[in-house]
Write the structure tokens for this entry.
Amino acid sequence: MPKQEIDAEDLFNLSLSIVGLVLRDGPMATTELATHFGYTEKTIVRAVKTIANSEDIGRFETHFYVDDELLATGEVDFSIGMAALRRPPLLSKRQTTALAAGLDFLAALPQFAGNVALSQIRSQIGSGTIPITILASPARQETLQAIQQALLDRTQLVASYLNQLGEKSERDIDPLRVDYVGRRHYLRGWCHSNQAVRSFRLDRITKIENTDKPISRAAELAEIPLEVFGQIEDETTVEIFATQEASEIFWNFPALDIQRDAEGNVTGKIQVGSLKALGRHVARYAGQARVLSPHSAVEAVRQFALQARSGSMTPEDQD
């Protein structure tokens, strides 16, 4: 089944991929692109429309523009602008850095030790020689190594975990993946207590052990949500204003209608699965990110702030 959910970064990457393919092969039908990339036609159209508004491409009139009339008939084509772009655009510095970090992480895994192809790719994109696992403290490196081994062995972990209120719990976790988001490592795994995929910050894991038990069938069948902080079910479209310093908030959600002013401030919309979790994201930026609408989202953030000040917040399963 074609993928429908997509976050802002993946949407931009998809846009660049479409540009490269169409510039190479000529006009293509949205149905053909949907089959090629594994997304719905609706997502393909959204990615194509994103191209003209991309912050990395910026002044798109010097590169190319989307033929809207042709797009309305189900076909994608780009008209070359003054720059006469003859090849796919290069990745942005931010994208290259993200790709390098991912390759560094792979290089730190035991199963990729001495992998020649991986070394060549890291060299070609200018990746550093120190993997991102070194960004963690020595104690957290040990946690990462234990998780990596469990991922290799497909075995269950038992972890002592402190939630955001400092409350301790014991969790039986089937490890699925490790993500590196916002300079933090997250274990994505099947939580036996909740019978669902949960995210656990590694700096809040105080103890972890490999049980040598095989992961459950439920874990093998589980789908990992795009949003690292919670599973998206019923989405709400929320309009956000963020200063340039807080604009990374848009990276954590599927985003649309992004606009940046001369000062670098960003206004746009994000798709949020849990308004309760939204407050935690907005609060991180200490007033530099603000919810504009709808009222339910504004109220959810206000309630989060009030509960945080009063100390009456309830424990969360994630983060």
About this structure: Residues 8-25 form the longest helix (18 residues). DSSP finds ten helices and 13 strands in the chain. The radius of gyration is 21 Å.
